[in-house]
Design goal:
The complex is a heterodimer. By secondary structure, chain A is of the alpha/beta class. Chain A contains 14 helices and 17 strands. The radius of gyration of chain B is 21 Å and the shape is globular. Classes of the chains: A alpha/beta, B mainly alpha.
Chain lengths: 411, 330
């Protein structure tokens, strides 16, 4: 009784505290805006950069990881004392939570536009990034996603939309070809979580498998909240696949893999980048061992050492997945502003389009669509509870981690 | 056939859990005609509490057999959930007992959001892997596999259902509950302390919910602060399917819903594959030849079955399969 009263009063107190915080955050705004239109005086100008990813819900840990990457970049930029148009600049990161939900994604995108951000890093999921990109496009604000891999994002013809990871139509074939070469499947099952990301990636994998003559079972689907995969898996079990590919995130992929092994499905399991994390080992336990998964970029372990050390020092945890990419995305915005000597989106956008930058995730250049030129793909396996890189695929060639490191060092 | 049998086993397991959660909805509704939408969150808190206790015991290396560690988790979750059940009734619903019926309904939704966010503060936003420390052996029944966890869930659910039925129909307090459900004022005139009975109804429902939470966590292998929401809605649909306010109805409704869900998910894409239908298949032969399948509904409709059942019941038999009273009261 007492504990529950405490819990209730705690929650009320927290709610009040949250209201209080909201007010506190709003309070300094007029001061900042008042400072902005006086560039003649050497007062610092505030430049707002937005970051959007899910901070609540099943993949909030990945959203927070992305946000940390962008925050690290912004803090480093502030420490570097950057000047634009002669005035010192203070970069401010506005983090937003889209809950991996396209509707909320659009709402917070509009909120960032209204808050006059000059650039956006994000969103995390293709499903929220694609609709939100139209809002940024209309407002003329450059956005760089560090993790949205659905090809449709950069196929819309928007000049302000970029990504620093590879595309599903590169990742899907890469992982499917790896499976074909190693597992030599005759029958394959493909499952997705009915999101733009999961379905898009699953389609690419299915295409490559079919092209290689593998029989692919009719597509099975869950949702991005499914915890009970038993019915779907039971059905697949009856068709005896050699390989099962799931396009989805780790929060749903973990239970899927665990339940599959409980049902004694012996197939090789393979996931895309959203479920290629150490969290998989925790969620699926011993069932995760031997999982094959892929990422549309270099592995976190292969990211720049400077980034890895700074991240660990600042947040006291290791980066999870795509934070090297959001770190680079935030720096790309800032570097383009430096080149154009302006934080005006219209002025620095051309500089961003033609940028050449060596970041934590390697060398970055954009093609005319806004995709990263010559993006790397990595194939991993789950070994002793850790995702372990097997091969980095660059320009159609498969390299080991050591070979890749030697190659980047040679540059 | 093996696959069909396996789906039946899957359905019986989830159905048993739905039934236990549905009992919490139906008991409260039976007594005060309130739909306690925060009940799903009580189940979630049960799962999370058990998760914390089990992890702590395993982490501390307490030399107990695995079954006893799980039992300790369950025993810790039950009083926590009972306390929350009591607090919900005392703080959120009792002050509104004579208010228009919409008011407690809205409070219930508010309580569900508060509980979710308190859980978010305590347990964080990451999905938690529910510890699997018991040996999960599986046995073959006619080609299908049934695991120890599944057997435990089904047996324990049956035991709890039987226990509750005995309690409600054979004990003095159970008679008081049924009298209060019949008419609060008349029961009060007969010397029944209505407040005590109503509070007890919440507390018993919450205790059942705590056990259901541990079952779900163990079965799916995952616990998360949002897990109570869909589960609560499904159990509510199960209660309506059986006839809300009716104990036997909630049990039947839960198990039936579990079976519908498992079989529906297992077979809907095959049934809705247009290429298998003789007349329709002929019309779209080109698309069928190209891909082999034109599937109208995929297995992602799993969560839809509960609500489809809910709508069908409300349209064709508003009082549910075994209920009688809903129509006159609503």
């Amino acid at each position: 009784m007492n504990t529950s009263l405490k819990v209730l009063s705690l929650s009320v107190a927290t709610a009040l505290a949250m209201l209080g915080c909201g007010k506190k955050e709003e309070a300094p705004k007029p001061a900042q805006q008042a400072a902005a239109p006086a560039p003649a005086a050497p007062q610092p100008v505030t430049v707002k950069i937005g970051h959007v990813g899910p901070l609540t819900g099943g993949i909030a840990h990945l959203g927070k990881d992305n946000e940390n990457g962008a925050r690290l970049a912004v803090d480093e930029a502030n420490a570097a004392g950057i000047k634009l148009g002669g005035a010192p600049v203070v970069f401010e990161l506005l983090p937003e939570d889209d809950q991996a939900d396209p509707k909320i994604g659009n709402t917070v995108a509009q909120k960032l536009v209204d808050a006059k951000v000059v650039g956006v890093v994000g969103h995390l999921n293709s499903g929220t990034t694609i609709p939100a990109s139209a809002i940024y496009n209309q407002a003329g604000i450059p956005m760089i996603s560090g993790s949205s891999t659905n090809p449709a994002l950069t196929e819309q013809g928007f000049k302000n939309v970029f990504r620093v990871v590879g595309r599903d139509d590169q990742q899907g074939p890469a992982v499917a070809n790896y499976l074909i070469a190693t597992a030599k499947p005759k029958v394959a099952a493909v499952i997705d979580d009915a999101t733009a990301y999961g379905e898009g990636l699953a389609n690419e994998v299915e295409k490559t498998l079919k092209a290689a003559g593998v029989t692919v079972l009719p597509r099975e689907k869950g949702t991005d909240k499914t915890a009970d995969w038993k019915a779907v898996l039971t059905k697949i079990k009856g068709k005896k696949p050699d390989v099962v590919f799931y396009g989805g995130m780790d929060a749903t992929g973990g239970p899927l893999l665990k339940q599959a092994r409980e049902l004694k499905i012996g197939a090789v399991f393979s996931f895309g980048d959203g479920a290629c994390t150490d969290k998989m080992a925790e969620l699926a336990g011993a069932a995760a061992e031997g999982l094959i998964c892929s990422q549309a970029g270099i592995p976190v372990q292969a990211a720049g050492k400077k980034f890895l050390d700074a991240y660990k020092a600042k947040f006291n945890i290791d980066p999870i997945l795509y934070s090297p990419f959001t770190y680079d995305a935030a720096w790309l915005l800032i570097e383009a502003m430096k080149k154009a000597d302006s934080a005006d989106p219209a002025k620095y956008l051309p500089a961003l389009q033609s940028i050449q930058y060596d970041g934590a995730s390697g060398h970055i250049e954009f093609d005319e669509k806004g995709d990263r030129k010559d993006a790397e793909m990595t194939i991993f396996t789950m070994k002793d509870g850790k995702v372990t890189p097997l091969a980095i695929i660059k320009g159609g060639k498969s390299l080991t981690l050591a070979e890749y490191a030697a190659q980047s060092a040679a540059k | 056939m093996e696959i069909f049998l396996q789906q039946i086993i899957n359905g019986l397991t989830t159905g048993s859990v739905y039934a236990i959660v549905a009992l919490g909805y139906t008991m409260v509704y039976g007594v005060i005609q309130l739909i306690n939408f925060a009940h799903g969150e009580v189940v979630m808190v049960g799962a999370m509490t058990a998760f914390t206790v089990i992890m702590a015991l395993v982490g501390a290396g307490v030399p107990l057999p695995p079954a006893l560690i799980v039992l300790a988790g369950v025993l810790a979750a039950i009083p926590v959930c009972m306390a929350i059940g009591y607090a919900l009734e005392r703080l959120a619903y009792r002050p509104l007992r004579h208010a228009p019926r919409l008011a407690p309904l809205i409070t219930a939704i508010g309580m569900s959001i508060i509980l979710q966010h308190v859980a978010l503060l305590i347990w964080g936003r990451d999905p938690r892997a529910f510890p699997q420390i018991m040996e999960n052996a599986s046995f073959a029944i006619g080609g299908a596999a049934i695991s120890t966890v599944q057997i435990a869930i089904i047996l324990l659910s049956l035991l709890m259902m039987a226990g509750l039925t005995w309690f409600v129909y054979r004990t003095k307090f159970g008679i008081a509950m049924r009298a209060t459900a019949e008419d609060v004022r008349v029961a009060a005139l007969m010397g029944i302390d209505a407040n005590r009975v109503i509070a007890a109804t919440f507390v018993i429902g919450a205790a059942l919910g705590a056990v259901a939470g541990v079952m779900v966590g163990t079965y799916y292998g995952i616990a998360h602060y949002t897990m109570g929401f869909t589960l609560g809605l499904k159990a509510f649909s199960a209660a309506v399917l059986g006839g809300i306010g009716n104990l036997a109805g909630a049990m039947a409704g839960g198990i039936l819903l579990g079976l519908v869900e498992a079989l529906g998910t297992g077979y809907i894409s095959e049934i809705s594959d247009l290429c298998r239908w003789p007349l329709v298949g002929d019309l779209i032969t080109e698309r069928c030849a190209a891909d082999g399948h034109v599937i109208l509904f995929g297995s992602n409709y799993q969560d839809v079955f509960a609500f489809l059942v809910l709508i069908l019941v409300l349209v064709f038999r508003p009082s549910g399969l075994l209920g009688e009273r809903v129509a006159e009261r609503a």
